[in-house]
Amino acid sequence: MALTVDQVFDKIGSFGRYQRLLLLGCNGLIFLWLGFPMLIMTFLTADPGWKCVANSSECLFKGSLPASDKSRCNISRSEWTFTDDLTSVATEFDLVCDKAIYATIASSMIFLGFLLGGIVVGPFADKLGRRLTIYVFGFIIGVFSLLTAFPHAYWLFALFRFIIGFGVGGASIGIYVLVTEMVGVRHRSLIGVSLWYFWTLSLLVLDLLAYLIRDWRKLAIACGVPAIPIVVGWFITRESPRWLVLKGKLMEAEVVLKRIAEVNGKEMSKEQFCVPEKQRMGDLRDLFTSKKMTHKTLLSWYIWFVCGMVYYGVYLSTPNVGGNLYLNFFLTSIIEVFCIPLTIWSSDRFGRKKIIVGSLILAALSSVGAVLFTTEDNSDKVYYLRFLCFKYFYFSLLLQRMLAGRIIFSMIFAKVFITITFDLAYLYSAELFPTVIRNIGMGTSTGAARIGAFCSPYIVYLATVHRLLPYAIMGGNALLCGLLCFTLPETANQPTLETIDSQTPTTTSVNAVKEDSNRNINEEEKAALVPGEVLHLSNV
């Protein structure tokens, strides 16, 4: 009897020693290839502040100048200097005042590359395999992360950041798909949680390195050098057996599965493989076949766009808040550790829709809090709003007297709720789209998140117009998105739609099985509910 790959994994171990070692190795790739390059720009482009030089004639003539970014633009460059021992691209290339926008452009380049890399990786991985995809794009990340430390021209630095983003866009998808295709259906949900934890850990280590290494070139080297030797993992990483079977390379797939069985202490079955038949995958037009489907598609895109914009916007705005840059980055990173279990528990307890809506609205209120807590208006209305917000978020009285502290606490709460939304968006969007177009629906949705991430540096740059304008924009979008999500259906414990035209549910959700003891769902049906299960990546 011919067996499917899932049935083979059930026999040789769906999450044994081999898969745990693979997951640990891929978490190392996440650590060095994704976390470091994506958010190191928070430190590489940081503006450390300024002060008048000793005996400055212009400063003495104009009197005491407020220590704001705009004030230094009114005096000669020779009359002021940067304050801290921190060096950055901003200090080296003098990206302040009229040239401050160039630091923003450099930050956005990695997100533009991230977007394009995600587009290219689908056909590349489908044609040449997951293993080659990971290490080709990963090698690009490692080499250009190191080269970032050496440019003496701004345009070359920005170009390298774009190339790094291109590599991240490809490697991130390749890593996730390889690991999910190497485990059984029951354990796929654990993969995303594990990878997300290592992403958070990489940010905490990045913060520590930035605190210890204040020179931006040395920091880039410290983060780039370890990323190159890890490509030796090519020699111990095996290709996805699912991809090999799909391509008809049954002998190679058997070799990989035998190795997995050996490491897991199992015996390989002698049955033949069942080669899956090619099925028609949906295309972009299928997302707009009806008003209902169009509504779901556009809102899914908007949810992901807001998540990308606010998530990265919070990180990139940490240098503008004031206070300690490294403490701010640490607080906005460590909070993610608690968001993941909270997301899992709350979505199962209250449903996907309620948590998505509630988190977006609370993220909006947190962003608005940054505006309310810093206004100089002492009217009764503003005081009343302040009181409600402080009562709701339980801010300490000490922080009410600290401008930077109030803003960073608002940002932390915004980060908590947008992280919950981001985590849940993977599952919610996967359940919104019917199976035949789930791949293209999820692919375009993640693309919307990358567009939002690309916009985030420019939104943060608007702080040069008014320091609170970025929070108002991010909060306004989160609020609008949350209100619009009221019109979406609940998907928890609901049947999963398989077709577009009939919108008829033919597969019962995994959670619904718990409530129906008379209904037995097999592993193949469960697989349809797990994001990323589709072998074809051309639409991602």
User: How much beta, percentage-wise?
Assistant: under 5%
Span from first to last CA? 34 Å
Low-pLDDT segments: 375-401, 504-540
Structural class by SSE content = mainly alpha
Strand order of the largest sheet: 1-2
What is the C-alpha radius of gyration, as a whole number of Å?
25 Å
Helical segment count: 24
Topology as a string of helices (H) and strands (E): HHHEHHEHHHHHHHHHHHHHHHHHEEHH
Query: Biggest β-sheet: count, sense, barrel?
Result: 2 strands, antiparallel
- Strand segment tally: 4
Mean pLDDT: 78
Helix content: 55-70%
Dominant shape: globular
Membrane topology: Multi-pass membrane protein
Keywords: Membrane, Transmembrane, Transmembrane helix
Pfam family, one: Sugar_tr
GO molecular function, one term: transmembrane transporter activity
Give structural attributes.
540 residues, two-stranded antiparallel sheet, two-stranded antiparallel ribbon, 4 strands, 65% helix, disordered C terminus
Short précis:
The protein is 65% helix and 2% strand.
Commentary on this structure:
- A two-stranded antiparallel sheet has the order 1-2. Strands 3-4 form a two-stranded antiparallel ribbon.
- A hairpin with a 7-residue loop joins strand 3 (496-497) and strand 4.
- It has 540 residues and is an all-alpha fold.
- Helix 17 packs across helix 20.
- The chain has helices spanning 5-12, 17-39, 41-44, 57-62, 69-72, 89-92, 100-128, 130-147, 154-181, 188-212, 216-224, 241-246, 250-264, 291-316, 318-321, 325-334, 336-350, 352-372, 380-393, 403-432, 438-461, 469-484, 510-515, 523-527; strands spanning 50-52, 80-82, 496-497, 505-507.
- It is globular.
- Mean pLDDT is 78; it is low at 375-401 and 504-540.
- It contains 24 helices and 4 strands.
- The longest helix has 30 residues, at 403-432.
- The protein is 65% helix and 2% strand.
- Its main location: membrane.
- It is found in: Membrane.
